[in-house]
Amino acid sequence: MNKAEFLTAVSEEADVTKVDADKALDAIITVIKKALKKGDDVSLVGFGTFTVRKRAARTGRNPRTGEQIKIKASKVPSFKAGKALKDALN
């Protein structure tokens, strides 16, 4: 499902226009990004939790040359599905 199909499904489910669904989705994504950037977790009970995890610096290998390279430490977004979402899939 791509974004357009998702927005169509949301607009039908919530009985709102596609424009309103698009605005709401953009607002949700923006709020989640801002919270994660501040270091906060975003928990949506029944759906899941968005968190930021720290990835340590490590040594990698250039696939073309085989040369070892240093990969810097970084922060990566993470999502852990909630129980209700897991149960809905099984």
Task: For this entry, give a set of tags.
90 residues; alpha+beta; HU Protein, Chain A; 2 domains; 3-stranded antiparallel beta sheet; two-stranded antiparallel ribbon; elongated
Q: Name the CATH class of the largest domain.
A: Few Secondary Structures
- Based on secondary structure, the structural category is alpha+beta
Number of helices: 3
Low-confidence stretches: none
Looking at the structure, the CATH topology of the largest domain is HU Protein, Chain A
Rg (C-alpha, Å)? 18 Å
| Helix content class | 40-55%
CATH superfamily of the largest domain: IHF-like DNA-binding proteins
**DSSP summary, beta strand count:** 5
Q: What is the 3D form?
A: elongated
Protein name: HU family DNA-binding protein
Function: Histone-like DNA-binding protein which is capable of wrapping DNA to stabilize it, and thus to prevent its denaturation under extreme environmental conditions.
Family: Belongs to the bacterial histone-like protein family.
InterPro entries: Hist_DNA-bd (IPR000119), Histone-like_DNA-bd_CS (IPR020816), IHF-like_DNA-bd_dom_sf (IPR010992)
Structure description:
This protein is α+β, with helices and mostly antiparallel strands and 90 residues long. It folds into two domains: 1-40; 41-90, Irregular (HU Protein, Chain A), CATH 4.10.520.10. It contains three helices and five strands; from the N terminus they run H-H-E-E-E-E-E-H. A three-stranded antiparallel beta sheet has the order 1-2-5. Helix 1 crosses helix 2. The two termini are 20 Å apart.
